[in-house]
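FORM 7B: Structural annotation worksheet

SECTION A. Query
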Amino acid sequence: MLSNNPHVGHKVAGCLLFLSFFHIDFAAGSSGKGSQSQDDMYVIHNSQLDLREIVFVIQSQSNSFHVRQAERRKADLLRQAHSLTEEWFLGKPLYDVESTIIHHYAFAENPSVFKYPDFAAAWALSIPLVVRLANKVTDEPHKSDFTIDLKHEVALYIWDNGKGPHLIAVPELCTEPEDSPQAQHCATTLSREPLLCGEPVNIEDIFVAVKTCQKFHSERVPVIKKTWEKDALFLEYYSDHADPSIPTINLGVPNTERGHCGKTFAILKRFVSSAVPKTKWLLVVDDDTLISLPRLQVLLSCYDPSEPVCLGERYGYGLSQGGYSYITGGGGMVFSREAVAQLLNSGCKCYSDDAPDDMVLGMCLNALDLPATHSPLFHQARPEDYARDFLAHQVPISFHKHWNIDPIAVFNKWLKDDLRAKASDGLNKSAKTEL
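SECTION B. Predicted structure
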């Protein structure tokens, strides 16, 4: 501990000051030379010395000017020591322009006041903060039903209703591409490695299942037909009413206001039956999901369909109390044929037709010890619900909801581009994203 006596080791004549400190990275002496050789730093970092056992001597003289200089040096060292005992939360800040459901409408009156880190830029905690949080998690386990946006929820947990630190912006933590001129002052950048892991998955290897109901046949289905339906080779609409003009297929499951578990499990069973073409991948979406199938083809090139893959935007339920992760349905749920087979063979089923399908599937995956694989390119909400800087370095795959937006305009702005024509020979050149 730092001594409570501000004059420890201070010679009366003003010649010497002796100070004892925590583990600190100090400037070397009072000569203005603050750097140390690599050999010196190696010795320091590998000796594991506790600097509380080291006495720092500031050389001075009895003249009043030199005494003042020594006191200033002492004060500077004490400030450094104090800063290393503080709690620091550092990162590239994101903020909400308007309150959003994915952040539980936090700070509704002024959502931009709360900053949270962009994980793509990296973020940092000081050791004192890490130690306190580790003790807090042990002594007071975090109780939260839903984990939706981890970066926002981590920031809220650290902030602790004002009792903990705010996020401090660090300009050197960046999301600039690594070959960008702006990246020369960045400690972190985004990679320009090719997005493609191989050739994009053939569109004939993807079967698309759209969940709808009669009341949305004239409202939502036309949006799909005007936007992304033309990019699908195998696509079926599943409804509570067979409408040959679309066409829709009635799976014999009554429509429910929420949940749709019965309908989704009927889709899984149909996928492995002889009623539809045999494909490697199943994509299940809502009728108000907007999606880029060419971008999905590129992403799926990184995954092996012979493995049980369940891919999309991952949420969590009761994770700190032994809960489970799940792929949220609105952003699109992607399953390999192997995953569907294991889910159905396990005997997993809905406890009711209106149970939440994505959460029931998450429970099944958890019981089977199969991972729910997260991609930040799938989005359960609208573009307006995400921080602008978060979307700025993405090439998104999906968004969800038609509420208070023009869905066709949203698709044209965020999901429609020339990538479908260049997927095999140039998509990686324009993509700025994490897989």
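SECTION C. Observations
The longest strand covers residues 206-211. Residues 1-36, 40-49, 419-433 have pLDDT under 50 and may be disordered.

SECTION D. Sign-off
Analyst initials: ____
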